[in-house]
Amino acid sequence: MASLIGSAVRRKEDPRLLTGNGCFTDDIKLTGMVHAAFLRSPHAHARIIRVDTEKARSLPGVTAVFTGLDLAGKMKAVPAMWFLPGCDLKPKDRPALATDKVRYAGEAVAVVIAENRYVARDALDLIEVDYEVLPAVVSQELAMQDDAALLHDDVPNNLALLWKAGEIPDQVFADAEVVVKQRLYNQRVIPSPMETRGAVAQYNPGSGEMTLWCTSQNPHIHRLIYADVLGIPETKLRIIAPDVGGGFGAKIATYTEEAVVACIAREIQKPVKWVEERKEHFMATSHGRDEVLEVELAGTKDGRITALRVTNTANLGAYLSTFGAGCPTIDFGLMVTGAYAIPQAAVVTYGVYTNTTPTDAYRGAGKPEATYQIERAVDLFADKIGMDPVEVRRINLVPNDAFPYNSAMGVTYDSGDYQKALDKALEIFDYAAFREEQKEQRQKGKYLGVGFSTYVELCGFGPSAVAGAIGFQGGVWENSTVRVHPGGTVTVFTGTSPHGQGTATTFCQIVAEKLGVPISDVELVSGDTQSVSMGWGTYGSRATAVGGAAVSLATDRVIEKARKIAAHELETTVDQIEFIAGQFTVKGDLSRSRTIQQIARSANYAWNLPEGVEPALEGQSFFDPSNFVYPFGTHICVVEVDEGTGEVEIRRYIAVDDVGRVINPLLAEGQVHGGIAQGVGQALWEGAVYTEQGQLQSGTFMDYTMPKARFFPPIESAFTETLSPVNPLGAKGIGETGTTAAPPAVVNAVMDALKPFGVAALDMPLTPEKVWRAIRSGRDKE
Amino acid sequence: MAHQVEVSMKVNGAESKSVIEPRMLLVHYLREELNLTGTHIGCDTSQCGACTVLLDGDPVKSCTVLAVQANGKSITTVEGLASKEGLHPIQMSFWEKHGLQCGFCTPGVMIAAIGLLNENPDPSEEEIRLALEGVICRCTGYQFIVDAVKHAAQTLREAGETKVAMADSMKA
Amino acid sequence: MQLSYTHTFSLQREIVWKLIQNEDVLKTAIPGCKSFSRMDDGSYDVEMGLSVGPVKGVFTGQVQMTDQEEPSYYCLKVKGKGLPGEVDAVAHMHLDETENGAAVTCRMEVVVTGVLASVGQRVMGGVAKLVLGQFFKSADTEMRKLTSQV
After folding, report:
1. pLDDT tens, residue by residue, A123-153
2. PANTHER family, alphabetically (chain B) (predicted)?
3. How far apart are CA A775 and CA A144, in angstroms?
4. Which of A295, A734, B17, B20 is the most exposed place for a label (fewest CB within 10 A)?
5. Would you state the CATH architecture of domain C2-145?
């Protein structure tokens, strides 16, 4: 039988989704259900003087209207869960509904409950709010100035945190042969999964049980936080993430709306549904990135990088979001040296409150920003010393014999073969031929450019002891139960919570392969706190590396137990039993065997079990990895810039990724494609635009450019496979490689193309207008 | 109570009749009145195409059509694609080529693809990418969607289908 | 957002000066004006229906005319509040003599919030010009009516 692990199995989840039989949050309909709609602040910063809900309440069809004051004492504000130590963190919780002040445009002020969503919307228009508008501050750099508007009275200079890691004396840079300094802005982007957020809450007044269906990447985290916010014990709070239409980090955070909906379902004793409109999503769901990066790189004339110093001024938005404190610090800071052996490195991060939507994890969370600054800096360094950017990378990449590699930032890269991925990418690309073509085309007035990104990222969260040390208020281990039913079919339970990754396929592949049963006999259960004992969810590319490892170990326990029962039935000792392709066989005697299905039946009937073996056939694992995993690779982007319009066309995109063991190459490639599309999106088109008064102008898909099919050529994807030693599968993470690697590959390519115009630095997104202006000003200088 | 009107239309081959508010969008009519929740709502501004359905055989964004505008017409939603014999070739191709991840945009994308194949049974890669202008997928990066549409076109051509037939509705 | 608009009246500057600040003219000329009443402090309370592309709504607000330098300049301050958001505008009105009459140039600085900002912004410039155009055209008609009656 061909190995299931490593084969391109069609997805188990697809027939349901392809026929319209999925069940997303908005598809849930309960008897007597009413609908919620939130009234949101039009101002970025204002004092609330008066909220008059009288007219709204009297509209026919309206069940109730709540303001922040109406909810006082019924639920708490929603706290963050990452309290980074040693950085003077001043966490600010999100109020259920704003009562005294609104701090960003789109903050919820009141909520209407009505018989349908149309009436709820009508009623919103009848609520009158008087605001006293206050000066707003949008830019994190301006927000730190002494005369800036203050969001929270007890947070001077709006400085939520100041984190420092490592120190390098100025002398090191003063004495360096070559120093490159560059300011880069990694702009704010809006995650935009195609399904917005939503929640349906049902309360049983008899038992006190609350069921909350919501668009979550981590229902157990939602239960942990909301149990406290709502004052409901975890035993009586059931969170279900049904089918979830994409997350990209935006559905990690515990927001207020879901908790408000649950709180009101308890108040009015009716099921309540809320589904975010897209324009609400733009303002009310967390944004990503928004970091001003000042990088200083020291090196030698012959291409060796000797030191790196980075200052990150990060925009946290108006409140501290769930993972908000961790993204620009730990996630960013620990990876600033990238794939290079840089002996000295230091990072300072300022986390700043502003009158904008709170920021949190977005696909990659800190690692894309880290990769962006180092990959851009390496190109600038190469330019300065007149060396080819590939050559500089070769000189500085962490060598194979250095793994496990201790970086200057104090983390240990698990395994790698960075040169191999680079070689493979170059082989697909044909670099020499490209440089020839580039030269020829330039003479014809066509501007081609190539950009490289030899990235590494940290993922597979992670050892729980580390989580504790960095102030993450939870564990990051993972749990799985593998249950073999009397008939021989298998249910697998995981604490990860998929939302498009295809986990129901990959995890079943692992179990089916190990147990030697057809994959059609294996089903995955996830996303339900009542079915799955515990877990920490899907984010940080941890599902396969941590969750999959737990599945693998739980399956091993099933086999171990089944082997004992088989030995007993076959009247031999355990060490005499071989288990191959679903058959337990006595060594050297093929006639004496039992199938796993036969053992499942006897284990569950328990008529004749060996001494000390309990009935049923089930294994559980709680897997806490010893380290993070560090996927890596080389991405190469070729662009053509239209001199007349400034438009950037992607001509080729080559991605060689090493994500350790690949469970399903088809799904792995799908993850690569999707990540690259988002990464290219950030490089070229996407960006949140605020006015100085804090109004989000890029507030719909009309103004926020989402990548479309026609923007891309076919992506050339390949893998190398360097196993990780930190989990039994040897798997690393794959979900975030594209958003991490792509932005600098694209920007480096555009900069390469613009060299004839003397353009050295442009900030993302590289829109046609920006590129066109740069070309023009380059021309004017000539 | 708000003014109500009666609408009737044929949805996936079955006659439906309801009394609704005239402002009700077709997508809400399908989802709330008929419980056909396979058609999704992804934006408020008719950019994302998750709500695309066939209206008398042509793809439309059902979030920008009032239910009353569809009165007397024939609608095909994702629920109407497969037959008892199995999946429609477009569904089969999306499955085989991994043309979906979270699956939220997929119903609309498949319907948009059917709209293309009805007009152009042998589209080039570029034509497919252009035809997907009206839909947004955040997960796949589109490449496997393009592959799936190409594969579906080939399957349908080999089967000698000139029009992309639906399980029940289009035959009426 | 900044915008400017010029309309040329075929009336003498002094007449335009008087009439363009005249209550009845304003009431008729403000597009969608539902009510226009003078307050004790000399400002006006206004209610007007406005439609900016997909964003429609009724706005209530105050209009104030200050810094008059007869007959060449005054400042118009508008604060409006409606369901789609809030509008805060300062308009500098310059009246210049021309060959056949008077040109009124309106230079305006507008700040908007809410849906007006997030959805309406991209069409605001065009719509604002349209609204100003309508205003001046109606004002022109109204002024002619009044002057011919005199």
Report:
1. 999 999 999 999 999 999 999 999 999 999 9
2. OXIDOREDUCTASE WITH IRON-SULFUR SUBUNIT
3. 34
4. B17
5. 2-Layer Sandwich (3.30)
From the centroid of its chain, how far is CA A26?
Answer: 23
Residue from the list A275, A500, A701 with its beta carbon closest to the beta carbon of B139: A500
CB contact under 8 A, A245 and B102: yes
Distance, in Å, from the CA atom of A181 to the CA atom of A373, rounded to the nearest integer, reads 11
Q: What is the CA radius of gyration of chain C?
A: 15
- Of A287, A283, A318, A276, residue with least CA distance to A38: A276
Option in B24, B47, B128 nearest A702 (CB): B47
- Considering only the beta carbons, identify the residue of A42, A282, A703 that sits closest to C114: A42
The whole-number pLDDT of residue B170 equals 44
Size of interface A-C (CB pairs under 8 A): 44
- The H-or-E segment that residue A523 falls in is strand A522-525
CA dihedral A320, A324, A328, A332 (to 10 degrees): 160
The nearest CA of chain C is from the CA of A215 a distance in Å of: 25
pLDDT band at A736 (very low <50, low <70, confident <90, very high): very high
Q: Which residue of B has its CA nearest to A191?
A: B138
> Locate tokens 């050295």: which residue?
A760
Residue contact C119–A702, C-beta within 8 A: yes
Yes or no, beta carbons of A279 and C115 under 8 Å apart: yes
Q: What is the pLDDT of residues B64-103, one digit of tens each?
A: 999 999 999 999 999 999 998 899 999 999 999 999 999 9
Question: Cα–Cα distance between A489 and A82 in angstroms, integer?
Answer: 40
**B146 vs A353, A477, A627, B94, B150, CA distance in Å?**
43, 38, 38, 9, 6
C118/A697 CB distance under 8 A: yes
For residue C58, give the chain A residue with the closest CA. Answer: A125
E strand or H helix that includes residue A117: helix A117-124
Reduced to 3 states, what is the DSSP secondary structure of residue A778? helix
Going B60 to B64 to B69 to B70, the CA torsion angle's sign is positive
Residue A353 token pair = 């409150």
Select from A7, A9, A17 the residue whose CB has the most chain B CBs within 10 Å, as the one to mutate to test that interface. Answer: A17
Domain architecture of chain B: domains with CATH: 5-80 (3.10.20.30), 89-158 (1.10.150.120)
What span, in angstroms and rounded, lies between the C-alpha atoms of A15 and B95? 8
Cβ neighbours for B100, distance < 8 A, ≥ 6 positions apart: A14, A17, A18, B94, B106, B109, B139, B140, B145
Q: Which ranges in chain C belong to alpha helices (H)?
A: 13-20, 23-29, 115-118, 121-149
A194, A363, A711, A715: best to mutate for the B interface, most B CBs within 10 A:
A194
Range A424-444 average pLDDT: 96
> Alpha-carbon torsion C50, C55, C58, C61, what sign?
negative
Closest CA to A683 of A220, A185, A291, A200: A185
* C124, closest residue in chain A (CA to CA): A697
- What domains, with CATH codes, occur in chain A? 14-134+194-246+251-284 (3.90.1170.50), 364-461+627-781 (3.30.365.10), 477-623 (3.30.365.10)
CB C102 within 8 A of CB C12: yes
Chain A residue with Cα closest to B1: A60
CA distance A224 to A233: 9
- Taking only the tens place, the pLDDT of each residue in C66-80 is 999 989 999 989 888
The answer to whether C117 contacts A691, with C-beta atoms less than 8 Å apart, is yes
pLDDT score of C29: 86
